Amino acid sequence: MATATGGDRIILGIESSCDDTAAAVVQRVDGRAHVLSSVVLGQTALHADFGGVVPEIAARAHSERLDAAIAQALAEAALGFDDLDGIAVTAGPGLIGGLVSAVVAARAIAAARGLPLVGVNHLAGHALSPQFSAELPFPYLLLLVSGGHCQFLLVRGPDGFERLGGTIDDAPGEAFDKVARLLGLPQPGGPSVEEEARRGDAARFAFPRPLLDRAGMDLSFSGLKTAVLRERDRLVAGAGGLRRQDRADICAGFQAAVADVLAEKAARAISVYLGENPANPALCVAGGVASNATLRSALQAVASSTGCRFVAPPLALCTDNAAMIAWAGLAQFDAGSGGDFAARPRWPLDQDAAPMLGAGKKGAKA
Amino acid sequence: MPPAPLILAFDTAGPHCAAALLRGADLLDARVEAMERGQAERLVDLLSEMLAEQGLGYADLSALACGTGPGNFTGVRIAVSAARGFALALNLPAHGVSRFEAEALDLPRPCLVALDARRGEVYAQRFGEGAHGPALLASGDALPLDGLAASRGDISGLPAGHLPPVTPETLARNIARIAHARLTGGEPAPPPAPLYLRAADAAPSRHPAPVMLP
Hints:
Chain A is α/β, with parallel strands linked by helices. Chain A has helices spanning 44-47, 55-63, 66-77, 96-113, 122-128, 172-182, 189-197, 222-239, 244-274, 293-305, 323-334; strands at residues 10-15, 20-29, 32-42, 86-92, 117-121, 140-145, 150-157, 160-166, 242-243, 282-286, 309-311. Chain A has eleven helices and eleven strands. Chain B has helices at 39-53, 73-90, 99-104, 168-184, and strands at residues 6-11, 16-23, 26-34, 63-67, 94-97, 111-116, 121-127, 132-138, 150-153, 212-213. Classes of the chains: A alpha/beta, B alpha/beta.
């Protein structure tokens, strides 16, 4: 059986925890990651008519697309299964239907080809993804901000994560999608709200900055979403519809509120992080929301004012992808992990952190 | 003469992992493990064990076959995902076989397979003259019973003399036999896809988009 411990290795990554079916081949050369291919098959159109990602629709799509994504990733890398040293598959956290399909497909491929297999935490994939852009000494500070997640993590090593704070309800990406839907803008909401906000006046509406008045690094975006809904309904009731300028102003105001909250909480997280006197300190951002230019420049400003480098993965590797899963899997192979694992919808990266408010009786989700 | 094809078939659409290994027309092994959940963790190991005990490996296979339902959605996806993974990794055909086809395999035509779909509904398919379905029927709907030579199922309203559904072991064996017939008949093997017959539960957005003004 091939081994994947240490040295230069080629790993197939597989990811299907939300609404992207992804496969990628990553090679490590002299300690650096080389993404040989990264295929992402999105499902935006399948979910467009509904109030968000529909788990059963996502599960159905993943089960019939994973093999094609994997075949395409190998073809684009011009490699076959014989060239691989191992397989890494996202085992959680996420929507269980997609996770199960990917884990089963990965198990089948691993058994058929005698390849070692590891189950990877999706959040660990994001947390290590800034390494695609730069050599990063540990510890670094990471803001993971996506459609499903929002948390500040101190990344102490490939398997050492400390959660400093996170959202107690919705993730910002989810809020962007919801705001887009409320305003009749296309999905995904991130780019369309950002585009609309360019024409808007961010100062016209005073949207709340949730939890800014409270100490710590936890965040909340549910109330902001509701405030946007109320403002929209007030405007529609007054005019019999929503004017283009109203819509642009709401988008700008909403985006500014998210930027203010993330920047202030990031500043607090940085001060905790700098208390550890890290060498060459870095604020890293990962997740799809990191591609928003306004949010990015707000975070960049905080980083530069506190003497931190600002590092984000290349744009295509910010959103959900399988290259980050292959890369995190490589670290697991190095650590000698392998063996049994199961798909799991809840899998907090920092097992010691207290569950977030609203996480439910089963404990932390992520 | 080339050796008879070796076919590995499995089904996880019900509360079981069921598998059969067929060499030509000969059944080498069949096994069933009953389980309400956990098929995703068990299936591939069970298949590996079954092959190993015959002194065989995945490289010896000629084709894969899997049950595509209807049945438990997650269970159907487990079998389909495994079959697609094996097919890709081994560059072999994978044949998807519906539960209707497997239930009807040894029945004279015309025949009806009608299975309890819960929620007051019935999964049904009629084979042979008057072919109908596969379909999801309300339990009050008339079943296509005219002139049946045989029927199989677990619902009320089937004609006297109807047969119960096959056991999970027979289900896996029949899936393998159908794949063998297709393989020797040179039939194409499109990637297996679940036969759901029921739309995904999904609610439209609670907040419709506003009327836009200039």
